[in-house]
């Protein structure tokens, strides 16, 4: 995460009647860089993590997700 400029990550499990979902929040200068960095990395940890993401979530980090990136609509800091 540090190599991608991520300063904070929060992962939560959302249980719903439609099944379980994982919500992932990245904070940093360029959160989209996380997937780009992982996709191009030769680092052993990055490769293992990318394989785990594919196995658990079915997401191929080497391909950008369809549609635009999420947009922050409300933010609160105390």
What is the residue-averaged pLDDT?
85
Number of helices: 2
Major sheet details? 2 strands, antiparallel
Low-confidence stretches: none
Identify the overall geometry.
Answer: globular
User: Could you tell me how far the N terminus lies from the C terminus, measured between alpha carbons in angstroms?
Assistant: 25 Å
Return Rg in Å. Answer: 14 Å
Percent helix range: 25-40%
Number of strands: 2
Query: What is the helix/strand order?
Result: EEHH
Strand content: 25-35%
Total domain count: 1
Spatial strand order of the main sheet: 1-2
What does this structure look like?
- The chain is of the alpha+beta class and 78 residues long.
- It has one domain.
- Helices cover 28% and strands 27% of the residues.
Summary of the model, kept short:
The chain has 78 residues and is α+β, with helices and mostly antiparallel strands. The chain has helices spanning 33-40, 44-57, and strands at residues 6-16, 19-28. The chain has one domain (2-57).
Summary keywords:
78 residues; alpha+beta; 28% helix; single chain; two-stranded antiparallel sheet
Strand-helix topology:
Elements: E1 6-16, E2 19-28, H1 33-40, H2 44-57
Antiparallel strand pairs: 1-2
């Amino acid at each position: 995460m540090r190599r991608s400029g991520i300063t904070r990550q929060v992962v939560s499990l959302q249980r719903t009647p439609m099944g379980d979902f994982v919500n992932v929040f990245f904070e940093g200068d360029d959160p989209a860089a996380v997937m780009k960095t992982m996709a191009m990395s030769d680092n052993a940890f990055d490769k293992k993590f990318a394989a785990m993401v594919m196995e658990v979530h079915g997401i191929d980090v080497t391909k950008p997700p369809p549609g635009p990136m999420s947009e922050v609509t409300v933010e609160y800091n105390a």
